[in-house]
Design goal:
Elements lengths: L3 E5 L9 E5 L9 E5 L8 H22 L13 E5 L8 E3 L4 E3 L1 E2 L9 E2 L4 H16 L1 H5 L3 H19 L3 H10 L13 E2 L1 H10 L10 E2 L25 H24 L6 H21 L6 H13 L6 H11 L9
Parallel strand pairs: 3-4, 4-6
Antiparallel strand pairs: 1-2, 5-6, 7-8, 9-10
Helix pairs in contact: 1-2, 2-4, 4-7, 4-8, 5-8, 7-8, 7-10, 8-9, 9-10
Bound molecules: zinc ion.
The site of zinc ion has 4 residues, from helix 2 and helix 4.
């Protein structure tokens, strides 16, 4: 095993954003992994890169969630989860309740450009987010209904964003990128799965935002699921968990951006401040996920739970969350 490995920070589309990290121990508990296939002898360089990139990213993400306030102790299926690094052909990645699977695919427009979903830390962390949610609340993972299914997708996208914020080099990069403008803006942090999104957009235009798979910097407002259309365009909310999830993710990222100056306490936020608010958002998400009731109108239920739980981490946070949730119509004005 090498002492260090080279990995993407967040997404292959951010081609300059690579970093060197200690080689991970994927067998470490809690939340151990088995990567399939294992590395073998003398693998092609690209296969070796993808293996260590996935191993290091998943280890970092699992360690992040395992450090949460009410952390899962095991996966739903036990101590070790199987991860298929390249299961078959397709523009896809999935958590099926038992395993994580990643695929490879290309588009008719660019047949020689092969996209490996398991090469993107954003997608690795998104799918791991599904598995974490399932480990915490399997009833939520199994539940049907647009609001609760979409929350699972938002939990996955927040996993991608929050896990990227564990890397001080990436935090410094995003602070420089957003310098002179609001942190609440489109950035390398807010754009989830840029490379994969650019391919999926060519095949399914309604399934990807214009600049990535899903941008957490968005202005989507809550709409009653019974009123949304069955199909829609990329910039509208329609009857699809990924589409609907952008309402939650937008609200969570907007709240995260407003938590930053609160945490910085009047000082300019540094990379460490970003890591601290990512920890707070993780804990608020986990606590609210544990306490929210599975009821019709789940969006308002989880929002109310997040407001309540956020007070444990900073007394100014409840107002931040309440303001965002009301502005986005996730909570009615009357609750305030
Ligand atoms: Zn998902």
């Amino acid at each position: 095993m090498p002492a260090t490995v080279t990995v993407w920070e967040k997404d292959p589309a951010l081609a300059a954003r690579i970093t060197v990290v200690p080689a991970p121990d994927i067998t470490k508990t809690p939340l151990a992994f088995r990567l399939i296939p294992s590395l073998g002898n003398n693998p092609p360089q690209a296969v070796e890169f993808r293996y260590w990139n996935a191993a290091a990213t998943l280890r970092r993400a699992a360690d992040f969630w395992a450090a949460s306030s009410q952390a899962p102790v095991t996966w739903r299926g036990g101590q070790v989860i199987d991860v298929f690094l390249d299961r078959s052909e397709g523009l896809n990645s999935e958590y099926d309740g038992t395993t994580l699977s990643f695929y490879h695919g290309s588009t008719v427009a660019h047949p020689t450009l092969v996209i490996y979903s398991g090469e993107s830390p954003d997608l690795l962390c998104h799918e791991l987010g599904h598995a974490i949610l399932d480990a915490i609340r399997s009833d939520l993972f199994d539940a049907e209904g647009l609001e609760v299914e979409a929350f699972g997708e938002a939990f996955g996208d927040m996993s991608a964003i929050l896990c990227a914020m564990q890397l001080p080099t990436f935090c410094s990069f995003v602070l420089a990128e957003t310098s002179g403008r609001s942190f609440w803006s489109s950035s390398s942090l807010s754009r989830v799965a840029q490379q994969f999104g650019s391919a999926l957009r060519l095949v399914k235009p309604a399934d990807a935002d214009e600049d990535c798979l899903r941008n957490a910097w968005n202005n989507h407002f809550y709409v009653d699921p019974s009123t949304v259309s069955k199909v829609g365009l990329a910039d509208t909310i329609w009857n699809n968990a990924h589409s609907f999830s952008r309402i939650y993710t937008g609200a969570f990222f907007e709240a995260l951006s407003a938590m930053l100056p609160v945490k910085a306490g009047g000082n300019a936020p540094g990379p460490e401040t970003l890591r601290q608010v990512s920890d707070d958002m993780r804990d608020i998400l986990v606590d609210a996920t544990r306490s929210a009731q599975l009821v019709p109108g789940f969006a308002a239920e989880i929002a109310a739970a997040m407001i309540e739980e956020s007070d444990k981490y900073h007394h100014a946070y409840p107002d931040v969350f309440q303001g965002v949730f009301i502005r986005r119509n996730i909570l009615p004005q009357a609750i305030s």
